[in-house]
């Protein structure tokens, strides 16, 4: 397996994995029409923009095997004054789940954050009904730190949970 920084030409694969995971995990949570008919085009536009005009505090890391995208993580350093660097996306392809890919990506994310924003914490938000992801974040030392509402792109409001780590080094202890 190889981990590398994302390039513009990766946007379609990233969008496809992102959309596929949302379709699997968010069925019954987000609007079915949105998931089936709008999501992929929307994700392509988002990832194309993120890779064409990246924020200065953005990092996107991919993990591949034989040129096939197995997963990715996107971070925004120092995104929140209170919580620190945001892990905005962590996605692992269905066939690669349960094989340590998520931990590998988070270890690389923590290394990236430690290099650029070492003195602040990390956090992410996960949909409250995404029980598998919440269990994973808890198992790697995430602390439940709040329950924000997400204004989802399908127009709904969805309850989320925030998980935090005190620093990149704190996350690295668990992954």
UniProtKB/TrEMBL annotation:
Domain N-acetyltransferase: 1-164
GO molecular function: acyltransferase activity, transferring groups other than amino-acyl groups
Keywords carried by this UniProt record: Acyltransferase, Transferase
Annotated CDD domains: NAT_SF
Transferase recorded as keyword: yes
Family annotation (PROSITE patterns): GNAT (PS51186)
Matches recorded under PANTHER family: ACETYLTRANSFERASE (PTHR43420), N-ACETYLTRANSFERASE DOMAIN-CONTAINING PROTEIN (PTHR43420:SF12)
Name listed for the protein in its UniProt record: GNAT family N-acetyltransferase
Species per Swiss-Prot/TrEMBL record: Vibrio algicola
